[in-house]
Fold PEGA domain-containing protein.
Amino acid sequence: MSPANQEDPLSPIQPSAFQPLGNEVEVKKSGIAPLRLLLAATALIFIVVMGFLLTASSLQIIVESESQAEVTISGLALPFGERYLLRPGDYSVAVEAPGYHHFDTVVTVTDGDSQSATLVLQPLPGVVTVETRPTGTRVLVDGQHLGDTPLADLALEPGERQVRLEADRYLPHEQVLDVTGRQVPQQLSVDLQPAWAQLSLSSEPAGADILVDGEIVGVTPTVLEVIQGDRQLMLQLPTYASWQQDLVVTAGQPQDLGTIKLQPAAGLLQLASTPNGANVTLDGEFQGQTPLELEITPGRPHRLAVFRPGYRRHSEAVELAAAAVEARTIRLRAQLGEVKFRISPAQAILRVNGKPQGKGSQVLSLPAVAQRVEISLDGYAPVKRTVTPRPGLQQLVEVSLQTAAEAKAARNKPEITTALGQTLLLFHPADSPTANFSMGASRREPGRRANEVLHPVALSRSFYLQTTEVTNAQFRLFTGAHDSGQIEGNSLNRDHQPVVQISWQQAAAFSNWLSKREGLPPFYRETNGIITGYNPSSTGYRMPTETEWAWAARSNGDSLLKFPWGENFPPSTAVENYADSSSAYVTGRVLSAYKDGHVTSAPVASFPASSKRLYDLGGNVAEWVHDVYSIPSANGSLQTDPLGAQSGDNYVIRGASWSHSRIAELRLSYRDYGQAGRDDVGFRIARYAE
């Protein structure tokens, strides 16, 4: 630094020029105002937040679901995990989760410190695919038919579901399916087990028709698929005898019957007689009544006998070649007997078998067979009699006609009612075309049993027969404590159901009790409470004889019924109470495709009456009849009004019941026997008219 520019250190300091700072101070003052506002706002927010925090309550939202849920709450809510801070009040809560229904609810928040709400979401249906072998299987879920397989995308509510799969000719399949839900796909695949077994058989010669339960199903040799159960197998081939065997078929268990050797068919003799209705025996064995067809074993002669009461017996030897057919008519020669008619008034007209014979008293030579006699005159009640002339012995018939009023008072009532309210109808079988008929069944009849031997019978006595089976209510008037029981939860004990679980002795004792109550002579002889015999001349109540039962059930004009509904099996409509599809879990065996609406016994008279106004003769419950059980002889001797032995160990049961379904059991010629009570056996009452 030059001396010229240096200042004197001792010289006084001079103040600098002064400039006021007013503008700068104003600028600084204007920058402080926004800061204060920010601080104030922050303080306000802090106060509000602190006020919210100090006054808010904690709410825990718990959502029960398998998938992540999204929760939406209306209004101000501060989330902290599953907890939310909210002021007291009502809030709308919405929840969404994959696989679940949308959920809406309202939650009320109180001023408590800690609260919780559990929300249970409802899962969406599951998506189930059902596949089976075979296809076309019916799918039932909880008892509702949802379609036939294959079924895809079947929407089922979650949880345990009872699934049943049904297909014709296969065993039903049942299982519990745990449906996941939430639209989770599931698949059910089932191979149904066949309800059949393979049956292998051949025949010698081959080519025979194979029938199972009466239906043609194939030709030998073959392997068949036969549905499980009791089956009747038959082979048929022209010019050969039918072959038959009963089989028990178990599903999945094959059977090999090997080769069945068929026998040459018997010759067929088409036999008629003049008059018809003659008894026929072949080699001493009763075959039936003309007209009929006889099977003649080829290769040897046979003794043929044709006879009828009132006619000479015809005998000859017959022989036919195998499968030969021959028609023959036998003319029987009548045996005559004299009958002297003493008739009053003398102007009355006498008719024999419907043909006028003149007026008043006279003597006639008539064939020694039952003759229907009628004496009539205007203003008088006609008299009908049955007279059987006897060769070499004159008979006397005396008839005095009564006025219509007199006859009406004396005649038996066509219908009577017991003290218990039971209705009985009067029958005159002697006046019917089937007064003489053949009981039993031909050996050629499908289902025929060995105890159904053909034998000739006749009914000459008029009798009353109850229209229905005895009911529980009626029997309890005799024995108040009787209980017919139940089976598989189905009652047999209701008032209008037929009484069951009674022995033959109890049925006979009931009949005697009712006879005494009405002042009738008891039919059954009783010692110390045990039935030991019967009085055939009594008009007291009893069970119908087997012959009366068979006539009442089978007689139809001038022919005999095979089944209650006619000749063809099975029935096409519900005509009687049998083991139908609803009874399968009780009876095991059922009549396929048959529905009668009753698992066990039905109230009496639930089905249409027969042509004779009788109910349930062919079904509902089987029935005790009067006769001691025996197998008839095939000697061809005619029995009139048979009553059987006075006592025995077993008694005859006739008719089918709610537990029966097979062709053998549903035929009206079917016979059973026993002594003790059963859950399908009851009875009805009868009595002689005179």
